[in-house]
């Protein structure tokens, strides 16, 4: 599982069937080797950050239309091609990718990671009134799109119950078409 996704999930609370709120387990710290693998893998994705970010958000809004309700400029748009052109969507895609990039760049700086996550969490909860479940859904879509577009860096080996970035088979990426 990508560490940024993992950290975002870690920040979220999960509601149990009986209505009690339970915190996710704290992940074990990354080793230096894992951190460098994640940064290396993410670097490849981030080279195409505009196209990847838009592809992720279009998939998210098409497959989970209720998530559009928070965006005044495209909440009524259904067509994927039209969504793709929306300036508000493209801006949010850049913001999402840049926030993840800051997290990945600071994997060894937990204070910085916590402050970025806190800012994002506060703004979305208090200002934009986004329910936490949408973060969970979006993180699944991120992994789905990256798994399709970058199979060499997002591999399916289980890692604490999820998927992770991996440096495995980087060579296989040579020559693969890039997104967009
Ligand atoms: C990885 C997850 C996400 C990241 C890193 C992220 C990041 C950001 C950032 C940095 C901003 C601009 C600053 C701000 O207003 O807070 C923003 C704005 C916003 N985000 Fe997110 N976001 C994420 C997920 C979501 C989700 C799941 C939704 C709703 C389904 C959402 C809805 C919004 C809205 C409505 C705005 C304001 C848009 C505007 O004013 O044009 N975000 N987001």
From TrEMBL:
UniProt KW Heme keyword: yes
Pfam family name, one: Globin
Example GO biological process: neural crest cell development
Keyword line: Heme, Iron, Metal-binding, Oxygen transport, Transport
Catalysis performed (reactions): H2O2 + AH2 = A + 2 H2O; Fe(II)-heme b-[protein] + nitric oxide + O2 = Fe(III)-heme b-[protein] + nitrate; 2 superoxide + 2 H(+) = H2O2 + O2; Fe(III)-heme b-[protein] + nitric oxide + H2O = Fe(II)-heme b-[protein] + nitrite + 2 H(+)
InterPro entries: Globin, Globin-like_sf, Globin/Proto, Globin_lamprey/hagfish
Superkingdom as given in the UniProt entry: Eukaryota
GO molecular function: heme binding; iron ion binding; nitrite reductase activity; oxygen binding; oxygen carrier activity; superoxide dismutase activity
Ranges for domain Globin: 29-180
Record EC number: 1.15.1.1
Family to which this protein belongs: Belongs to the globin family.
Protein name in the entry: superoxide dismutase
